[in-house]
Design goal:
The complex is a heterodimer. Chain A is an alpha/beta fold. Chain A has 16 helices and 13 strands. By secondary structure, chain B is an alpha/beta fold. Chain B has two domains: about 250 residues, Rossmann fold (3-Layer(aba) Sandwich), CATH 3.40.50.10540; about 90 residues, formyl-coa transferase, domain 3. In chain B, about 50% of the residues are buried. The chains are: A alpha/beta, B alpha/beta. β6 of chain A pairs antiparallel with β13 of chain B, so a sheet runs across the interface.
Chain lengths: ~375, ~400
């Protein structure tokens, strides 16, 4: 049993986060991913996350100044199924632009993940995440009274989401090729991918009035518990409200909490909100989590990253895995994103050292 | 041009956002996606307009007499099944993986849920926010001493749907090779873990340093949100050579003379002072003025936009990122368009069906005569109405 992409070859160019994460998604499902790096190495090599996003890949160093560079690049392009570049400009600089690649390999699936539309102003890829994030509302002020100001998010949601949009796009192209032999270009600008993430926030419907969404205006999302820890609940709908109140020992509150009067009476609403919030202080967050699971109500303690890393469920379910890394030693990191019954994915190995596979990969190229 | 999944049929039994996103994505790539819902589980209109696109809709109750037979007839014609039931429910209903593969061995069966199919929490229900809560996203956004907060978009829901679609593509590629179907699983918690992957790690000597809290503005003085007189922008000027370009701006030029900012190391040791200087320099300028002038100097400066800005962006409509349509059932609507671009088999932005609007057509396609359809109606397997209003 091996991954669904066993036998498929990926050539990965460019040091952007989106390219690295897409390469990881493919490597985790069995593809042989060759990462081409400059002599100075991928800029992400200083960061611990390099060991996560580049696990299972091979590293080949190619120097633009080297006289055999062009021959080697052509050889790599000819023998790959998928080529992933950050943007056309980088690939052009590496002499592996789209026209060259398609000339050399007519069945190639040529993927680019630029920041904005092709042709937009060039900017170095380490600025892409924040430029696209700012453009697409990722750092908007989320406080209800706009007192906080915009909230920065340090994790690369934009780049990772773009890799998520790209993965089915690339493999749709591979499936088409499997059926017809035809390759194609796949372009997923990070800015474009964010419109998929905005999703329902973009929906406008002017002609159909909205039914009131919340079953009770008193039911919120976050509650502080007895131990000072918080829970996130999602229970403001019919199937959850009754079981939740039962589990709280407040079954008789269903009537008052769903009374029509609550919508217009602010003082009454505040009174019930305080009363409802007070119940959560009767038990600890984990006690509530367990009680609500038995009641079938979505309720989760707001954990820290470390707590999730150590959680039994995270480990047993495969959300986190253990991997031996040559730089960091035994490491715990995120697991595989998709599981298969016949062709299970698995992490092929740790992230490669710089140029670790240059000789073996070049030796395997068909001679000119 | 036909899509990459031309000829592939998908039965989508999922609800809410994550599972239906997988169905929509497959439809956008050209599959014939049949959304199956019992009449009494009417979705709200806004999510239907978002994740219902590129599908046909049948209202079908498989627990009523004759209902499961309709499903099995559909299964015979299908390649992919999507489900998001609590663990054990699909089997109980007669639509579990083993039951379906007996009838259609090549079926690709996808299970999407909050916490996966294995482990102590396999039975736990959850939405996007529950996965955020479990994996550290909300504590990080709110700060460890504050109220936990969600991120601005439902990244986990849409991300999980996309990962499920990725899984389907891989399973179809494999089936093309071997003829074998299989079962696929994705979960909100694993998707959320992937977004957090840069922090979700541990090893001996690892120093945990999470940038967190609702009032964080950036990584440092030269990679950060700044407030101009009438709005915010993101300044990115921390790479080599960018300090020289930044200090070409008249209001910032005097900083060049300051020894505390003269070198990269000096600037790193005086972050707070630098941030204060830049804040006061930018505060006197309008956001359009400062961003334009910085960009002309080759410095990356990006307006920090809100949802309102984006919804009103005419360029987004021109690029097909926001689509307006006059819908037969729902009137004037707007929503996102497809975002990936494929040159030979383009993805296509679909439209949402009327809820239950294709019920009779689909039954006819399966070979149900009008009397048989009437009987299904009489038993409550399908609704009385041809299409059910949503709001």
């Amino acid at each position: 049993m091996s991954g669904a992409l066993e036998g498929y070859r990926v050539l990965e160019l460019g040091g952007s986060v989106a390219v690295a994460v897409l390469g990881m998604l493919l490597a985790d499902q069995g593809a042989k991913v060759v990462k081409v790096e400059p002599p100075t190495g991928d800029p992400l090599r200083g960061h611990p996350v390099f060991s996560v996003w580049n696990r299972g890949k091979m590293s080949v160093v190619l120097d633009h100044d080297d006289s055999v560079y062009r021959e080697l690049s052509e050889g790599l392009v000819k023998t790959t199924d998928i080529l992933i570049a950050s943007d056309g400009l980088e690939a052009e600089a590496a002499n592996i632009g789209i026209e060259d690649a398609v000339d050399a390999n007519s069945g190639i699936v040529y993927v680019s993940l630029p920041a904005f539309d092709r042709g937009a102003v060039a900017m170095s890829s380490d600025a892409w995440e924040t430029a696209v994030g700012a453009s697409t509302g990722v750092y908007a002020d989320r406080s209800s009274d706009e007192a906080d100001g915009p909230s920065f998010i340090a994790l690369p949601y934009v780049s990772i989401f773009a890799a998520f949009v790209a993965a089915p796009a690339v493999t749709a192209a591979l499936f088409h090729r499997a059926r017809t032999g035809e390759g194609q270009q796949v372009t997923v600008p990070l800015y474009y991918a964010m419109f998929t993430a905005m999703g329902a926030s973009l929906v406008d419907r002017s002609e159909v009035p909205s039914a009131s969404a919340a079953l009770s205006p008193v039911i919120g999302r976050f509650y502080e518990c007895k131990d000072g820890r918080w829970v996130n609940i999602n229970a403001g709908f019919e199937r959850a409200l009754r079981p939740m109140l039962d589990a709280m020992g407040r079954a008789d509150w269903y009537g008052p909490l769903t009374a029509v009067e609550l919508r217009d009476d602010e003082a009454l609403r505040r009174e019930w909100s305080d009363r409802f919030a007070a119940v959560w202080t009767e038990r600890t967050a984990v006690e509530w989590e367990d009680a609500m699971e038995r009641a079938g109500v979505p309720c989760t303690m707001c954990r820290t990253t470390e707590e999730w890393l150590d959680a039994a469920h995270a480990q047993v379910s495969g959300a986190v895995i253990d991997l031996d890394d040559p730089v960091h030693g035994p490491m715990r990191q995120v697991g595989i994103q998709v599981r298969f019954s016949e062709t299970p994915g698995h992490v092929r190995g740790p992230a490669p050292a710089l140029g670790q596979h240059t000789e073996t990969v070049i030796a395997s190229l068909p001679s000119a | 041009m036909p899509g990459a999944l031309n000829g592939i049929r998908v039965l989508d039994m999922c609800i809410i956002l994550a599972g239906p996103t997988c169905g929509r994505t497959l439809g956008e790539y050209g599959a014939d996606v049949i959304k199956i819902d019992p009449e009494h589980r009417k979705p709200a209109l806004t999510p239907w307009l978002e994740v219902g696109r590129a599908k046909r809709s049948i209202c079908l109750n498989i627990t009523k007499p004759g209902g499961l037979d309709v499903f099995y007839r559909l299964l015979e014609t299908a390649d992919v099944v999507l489900e998001g039931f609590r663990k054990g429910v699909a089997d109980r209903l007669g639509v579990g993986y083993q039951q379906l593969r007996e009838r259609n061995p090549g079926i690709v069966y996808v299970s999407i849920n909050a916490f996966g199919q294995d482990g102590p929490w396999a039975m736990r229900p959850g939405f996007d926010q529950n996965a955020q809560a479990a994996t550290g996203m909300q504590v990080r956004n709110g700060g460890r001493d504050g109220t936990p907060a969600p991120p601005p978009y439902t990244f986990n829901d849409y991300g999980t749907g996309l990962m499920a679609a990725y899984g389907v593509m891989l399973a179809l590629i494999e089936r093309e090779r071997t003829g074998v179907g299989q079962r696929i699983e994705t979960s909100l918690a694993v998707t959320a873990s992937t977004f957090s992957s840069a922090y979700l790690m541990d090893y001996e000597g690892f120093e945990r340093n999470e940038i967190e809290g609702p009032t964080v503005r950036g990584f440092g003085a030269l990679s950060r949100l700044y407030q101009a007189s009438d709005g915010w922008f993101f300044l990115s000027a921390d790479a080599e050579g960018e300090w020289d370009r930044l200090t070409e701006l008249a209001e910032v030029k005097p900083l060049r003379e300051r020894t505390q900012f003269a070198t990269h190391e000096a600037r790193a040791s005086n972050e707070d002072a630098l941030e204060a200087e830049l804040s006061s320099a930018f505060a006197t300028l309008t956001v359009d003025d400062v961003a334009d002038r910085l960009r002309n100097l080759g410095v990356v400066a990006t307006l920090n936009r809100t949802m309102a800005d984006i919804r009103n962006d005419a360029d987004a409509e021109r690029s097909g990122l926001i689509v307006s349509e006059e819908h037969e059932a729902f009137g004037a609507i707007r929503h996102a368009g497809v975002t990936p671009q494929l040159s030979a088999t383009p993805a296509v932005t679909g439209t949402s069906p009327a809820f239950g609007g294709d019920t009779v057509d689909i039954l006819r396609e399966l070979g149900y005569a009008p009397e048989a359809v009437a009987e299904l109606r009489a038993h409550g397997v399908i609704p009385e109405l041809d299409a059910i209003p949503l709001n």
